[in-house]
Amino acid sequence: MTKSKLEKNPVLTESKGKLISLNALNESRQHEYTQKEIKTEKEVKVKVNDFSFYYSSKQALQNVNMDIAPNEVTALIGPSGCGKTTFLRTINRMNDLIPGTRLEGEVIVSGQNIYHPAVDVVELRRKVGLVFQQPNPFPKSIYENVAYGPKIHGKKKRTLLDEIVEESLQQAALWDEVKDRLKDSALSLSGGQQQRLCIARVLAVRPEIILMDEPTSALDPVATQRIEDLIRKLSSGYTIIIVTHNMQQAARISDFTAFFLLGELVECGKTAQIFTKPKDTRTEEYITGRFG
Amino acid sequence: MKILNPDLKKTNTEQVHRNWTQTAAFLCLRLSLIVVFLILMVILYDITKKGIGVISWLFLTEAPRTGMTEGGIFPAIVGTFYVTLIATLVAVPLGIITAIYLNEYALQGRLNRLIRISLRNMAGVPSIVFGLFGVALFVQRMGFRPSLLAAGMTLGLLTLPVTVTAAEEALKAVPKSYREGGLALGATKWQMVKSLVLPPAVPGMLTGVILGLSRAAGETAPILFTGAAFFLPYLPDSPFSQFMALPYHLFILATQHHDISGVRPLAYGTAFVLLVLVFMLNLSAVLLRYRYRKQIKQF
Amino acid sequence: MHNFKENAIKYFFMANGMLSIIILLGIFYLLLSRSLPALQNVGLTNFFAPGYWNPTAYTTPQYSILNLIKGTFMVGAGSLIFAVPLGVACATYLAEVAGAREREVLKPIIEILAGIPSVVLGFFGLVVVAPVIAELFGLNSGINALNGSILVGIMALPTIVSLAEDAISAVPQSYRHASLALGATKWQTILRITLPAALSGIIAASMLGMGRAVGETMTVLMATGNALAKPSSFFDSVRTLSANIAIEMGEVPVGSVHYHSLFFVGFVLFMITFIINLLADVIFQRYREEI
Ligand SMILES: Nc1ncnc2c1ncn2[C@@H]1O[C@H](COP(=O)(O)OP(=O)(O)OP(=O)(O)O)[C@@H](O)[C@H]1O
Ligand SMILES: [Mg+2]
User: Fold this and answer.
1) What pLDDT is attached to residue C121?
2) Around Cβ C4, how many Cβ atoms within 10 Å?
3) A24 with A66, same domain?
4) Ligand 2 center to residue A242 CA distance, Å?
């Protein structure tokens, strides 16, 4: 089922007055989609309520309300500086690291407000992994990079680690390329391999949600293609939120798309709808390339 | 045309004048560096010329004899080695931990600022004042009496700012992406620091350690009353012994000896050994830093 | 669980980081508490009354530190008279004129100079500079305030150069470009734009150099002669606060009024350098923020 999903080009069907994205070759998926009109609390993986975010002097996000469905790919698009990265990083609280930031509203992940004082940030980041724009492997071996997460979370047994490393590298479609050189420095890999390694590194922690900030912006088309395939493949088991500047990429790989502009969430919906019948004229203008 | 011409000429002379001024000014500036260079050279030349002849195997391995008019400086070398070692043992852990706190934990805020101001001010506290502090705290209050331990700890605190600064520089050179990568995987702060920040920072920290060492090895004022001895017929055998030290030995030979002109060659020899020691330490720090910078660039 | 451990580590580090504050306060406290007996016995005013430092006088001991303070500032000021112009010129050259390669060769000169132990410099002053001064000015001895000033100037030079260079380099590139774009030469830009913009940083650098000079012990101890008389010119032998402690601390009976007075001398020296350094620091940090 995931395989067929890779043969993209969503065909668009009108159903009950709503546009939904369908894969013509995949009836079950179609069924799934119609089922997955996000309505109940249970079916929302990440729920953002009246969320505003400020860097010391500047407001970066304004009253964002958004629901993100589980086990789907949600793409965040919008012109540079509109707050996509900021939004992404609030979901695993990486923005905590920047001094002088302020926020209002709530972000609910799996039913829990992650900005509640009692929340353990470390625990949260285990559940919500982040892949950076620039591949950032540690200056360690390939093996050690993938094993890093499990190790810090207390998995010490060698055989278990071996298993996790292999499985994660398999999932990240990197295993065949590196299985004979696991002891080599991760820095010796190509950019695309490094990025897949970083994805494997995140997968090894077994997160529920994977955030990706323009993961292919530093890569060539072939490497980009591989990462996109990977994202589609992973979407069956993970909730993926991805920032991208590439409109085609958003259309190819995502189920839902959210359009940000000047710190505001302008529109969010099924990818097919956003790209064919956007409700907001600003979305339409952006998509058709009239600005941004 | 006729009206324009004089103007043009004026611009030209002005230009020539300006360029000439600039050349002269830059020459003066360069000259100032040459002056500094010459000062340095004169100092090094004089001490090397008159000191190198004194150096022999015996000079380095014998104790002073016959009222310090003959013999070598072995006990002073040993004493300096020990006292520097103790200073290092004090300054290195304290310096590195302080650097980690400033650079990884309390990145901003009032406490960070206060610590930084204190460190900068500590770097400016006269070494003789550190000596008094050492007397009051280690020699008396803690009851170490004048000893290797008291002097070493005084020197250790004195070199703390050097160590912190160098250790921080090493931490700053570690890319931010390592830290973010680690935290994003759910590492705790300490896990992240321990496994991702410290390993690549170690060579740089070593540079700081060595710089601190060379500062400690050359200091005289802080050890004057905290443990350095005029003359000892034996080597220190415990941290609570007094000791001879190269810089203090030089001071004595140069100013306190009954036969100052007679022992002048010995003084030169001691000064030369001290200089060589300090420079070797500095040089190794520089080389280490250089290699390390290259390495960092490869990442 | 890991929260507890993390917090324990954090607070351990914090306690450690606060050590520098504690040491600084500790120096202040210990020096002051050690000088209290002297203050009670001698009286604060007598330390600053006109007279001499002569605690071991047979009849009436005197504790005036005025001459010591004067000596200290003579040497300090004397050293700055040549160290500041020379240092700022070097810094300007390093920051504005020298290329990257050249700088890489030149900077070690300053670093090596900074590495010379002060006792070696003092020795050099004693055996090399003193005879030269005596010869040049026709004096009996070249061991005087001038000699001390020269050596302490050399001592303070690296501090001034490196901080002034920092200050000059911190001037935003846009200032220089704006000036150059108006047709000014590089030198005009340096003189009219860059150096004035860096002025407060340079002043701070000089003050920190002053702090160094005032606190320097071994070189002045060996090169100035340490006479207790009131100095009237740079050709006189002078004794500084720091040298006074170094000379007498070793021989004084522990617990005597003299002993405690030396701690008071140390306290005064500490306060002078502390104030100079703190002022310089405030100026420097403010400069950094402005730029
Ligand atoms: N650390 C920061 N401090 C202050 N302002 C920041 C910081 N990071 C981002 N901003 C500002 O917040 C706004 C949103 O930035 P953000 O990085 O989220 O944009 P983005 O949509 O990811 O842009 P891009 O597509 O270029 O990556 C921008 O105006 C940016 O200047
Ligand atoms: Mg971004």
Assistant:
1) 94
2) 8
3) no
4) 11
Beta-bridged to residue A104, according to DSSP, are: A52
Bridge partner list, A209: A128, A239
Report chain B residues touching chain A, CB-CB < 8 A.
107-108, 175, 177-188, 191, 195-196, 199-200, 298-299
**Closest to A197 in 3D by CA, of A149, A159, A145:** A145
* Interval B53-107: pLDDT, tens: 888 888 888 888 777 777 788 999 999 999 999 999 999 999 999 999 999 998 7
Q: Nearest Cα to B206, choosing from B106, B295, B287?
A: B287
ipTM summary value: 0.91
**Structural contact between residues A209 and A127, judged by C-beta atoms closer than 8 angstroms:** yes
pLDDT digits (tens, 9 = 90+) for A14-37: 333 333 333 333 333 333 433 344
Q: Which of A282, A184, C21 is nearest to B118 (CA)?
A: C21
Q: Specify whether A159 is located in the same domain as A283.
A: yes
The pLDDT of residue A112 is above 60: yes
Q: In terms of CATH, what superfamily is C45-290?
A: MetI-like (1.10.3720.10)
Question: What residue numbers bound the domain in which A35 lies?
Answer: 1-39
Cα of A85 from ligand 2 centre, angstroms: 4
What is the span of the domain harbouring residue B162?
74-245
Contacts from C35-39 at CB under 8 Å and sequence distance 24+?
C35/C260, C35/C261, C35/C263, C35/C264, C35/C266, C35/C267, C36/C260, C37/C257, C37/C260, C38/C63, C38/C257, C38/C260, C38/C261, C38/C263, C38/C264, C39/C264
CATH of the domain at B218: 1.10.3720.10
Domain borders along chain C are 45-290
pTM: 0.83
CB < 8 Å to B222, chain C: none
Class of residue A2 by CB neighbours under 10 A (exposed 0-12, middle 13-18, buried 19+):
middle
Q: Is A183 exposed, middle or buried (0-12, 13-18, 19+ CB in 10 A)?
A: exposed
